[in-house]
Amino acid sequence: MKLNGKKLLVGAVTVSAVSSPALAVSADSAYIFNTLLFLIGGFLVMWMAAGFAMLEAGLVRTKNVAEICVKNVSLYAIACIMWMLMGYNLMYSGVDGGYFGQFFSLWSPDDTATLVEGAKVDPTGYSAGSDFFFQMVFVATTASIVSGTVAERIKLFPFLAFTVVLAGLIYPIQGAWKWGGGWLDAAGFQDFAGSTLVHSTGGWAALVGALILGPRLGRFSKDGRIKPMPGSSMPLATLGTFILWLGWFGFNGASQLALGSLGDAVSVSNIFVNTNMAAAGGAVSAMLVTKAVYKKVDLSMILNGALAGLVSITAEPLTPTPIIATAIGGVGGALVVFAVPFFDKLKIDDVVGAISVHLVCGIWGTLAVPLTNDAASLSIQLLGIGAIGIFVTISSAIAWFALKTTVGIRLDEEDEERGSDLAELGMEAYPEFGKGSQKF
Fold it and tell me: Residue 376: left if φ>0, alpha if ψ -120 to 50, beta else—which one?
């Protein structure tokens, strides 16, 4: 493997990186390194749950902050349980070029492990538990995308019921098509870490939910005006964005799925660089575009611009050069600036801009893959985007409508006006503000 003609010092032996084959470690060491990558990547992605919680808490109004925190903690826990009960095996077990794996099959680390020197070892080259953990935290990310869009007017338990369906059925079925070795994988569809499989899936589910749920009271007037509804804390939203930015290194980096060779170590490093540069490109692009279009710099747009850059590079964070990764993220940041008001004009109320960030930029990132990856075909990328979009839209609509017609999904007007904190929880996130805070 060539690394700019440099030499690598390994232990006490100097090895030429120009002429030598890829440097490899022992099978045991590779197993350990691969497992460690999954575990570190997994807890970084898990930490993104905190990022979503803080971002959403900052962008909803004060009277809804406690409830949005409850939703984020609860959806993560529910997603984990559903992944164990059926999601993992539905996505990965026995797909074999088809559409899904095993329904209602409880995952266990003993499923594929064999006993080696007193330890249960998985033959894949990494611990089965580490793979389960890493894949599990992705489904929670998908559910968090929906949470922010439908905030401030949805009932708590119907939303959590939708999370059960999303985590247990919708996400793993469409994920099986690519990552489980299903029909899209056989067709050549490329999505390295989930611009479509994670982010667009969450975006489609959120879009359908927002359409069926309707906008917040007073958000759109009959004469077409859009009433601004500022969030409770921009510093909190900024903190949430930085947490997500950090977690994304695990999201994309660990999707290399191996760290047991020189090539894998270089790839993970390059993925980290490209992930960071795309986020930087998205933030700067959003800042410049908002200044040019609105004559003011909008902090919320910059935050969403950074996230848009991250979503955009997720489909292929390995093959671009850093400057191309910056440009891909920059396009995503610009798209968000125009997508947010576009959905507002359609009277689709997205509290945190998640549809613009995750759906629009998830599509863009997936379409951008052929720019740097010769293995990708634009037509196949379009096929994957369309197939997953149709499946998630239809299945989400069935779930949302079923909940709406049975238990109802929306708070009544009085409860929405006083806020979901008091209506659903009987408490306030900031009780020291007093009753005056509930007028926001």
Answer: beta
- Work out the pLDDT band at 107, boundaries 50, 70, 90: confident
Q: Is residue 325 a contact partner of residue 313, using CB atoms and an 8 Å limit?
A: yes
DSSP-derived pairing of the beta strands 13-16 and 7-10: antiparallel
Q: Residue 120: is its pLDDT beyond 90? A: no
Asked whether the beta carbons of 101 and 176 are under 8 A apart, the reply is yes
Taking all residues of the chain, what is their mean pLDDT, rounded to a whole number? 91
Going 234 to 166 to 130 to 11, the CA torsion angle's sign is negative
**Per-residue pLDDT, 252:** 98
What's the longest Cα–Cα distance across the chain? 76
Alpha-carbon dihedral sign for residues 241, 197, 75, 209:
positive
Split at pLDDT 50, 70, 90, the class of 435 is low
| pLDDT average, residue stretch 381-405 | 98
Do residues 326 and 278 lie in contact, with contact meaning Cβ atoms separated by under 8 Å? yes
Residue 439 has pLDDT above 80, yes or no: no
What's the gap between Cα 29 and its chain centre?
31
* Residue 390, token pair as written in the block: 């149709």
End-to-end CA distance of the chain: 60
Say if pTM beats, i.e. exceeds, 0.85.
Answer: yes
β-strands 7-10, 114-116 pairing: unpaired
Alpha carbon distance 64, 22 (integer Å)? 54
Report the CATH architecture of 27-421. Orthogonal Bundle (1.10)
What does the domain layout of the chain look like in residue ranges?
A: 27-421
Signed CA dihedral, 353, 354, 357, 359: sign only: negative
